[in-house]
Amino acid sequence: MPNRLFGVTIAALSILFLMYAVPTIDSDQGFFSVGPKLFPNIGGSLTLIFGLLIALQKNGETETAALQTKDARVSLGLVLGITLGFILLLSQLGFLISVFLTLAAFLVVFGERRVRVILPVALGVPVVVHLIFLNLFALELPTGPLDFLLGGL
Hints:
Distance between the termini: 49 Å
Shape: globular
Largest sheet: none
Radius of gyration: 17 Å
């Protein structure tokens, strides 16, 4: 039963992502036939497929023993809540702020308490990913309120 619940939850979050987060991406810009919605659509679709595959497994196949404890279910709930928060905040706050908050929350949920670890990771990863998408893929990620700062990049 935990596998079915997990799979259905992941599939539902994927549908929310594909329905509400992906359409907010500005699709006017593109690099050849690759538009800015391509990677989010691929990721959301694959996550939806894998969530459904997990939900449709026969009982007894690869039971998720880790979800048997209350602490594990609370951790899963926190992870799903943080992920849902990221989806909801992405269009409002933009990529950099949303990923910063999400990574910081994930690090804290998974036990990291050292600010000297949390801040560099939570600040560095979104900046590096943003620069890769901008310079390598020629795709702009949602900037949110940081548009005035990122306009020159």
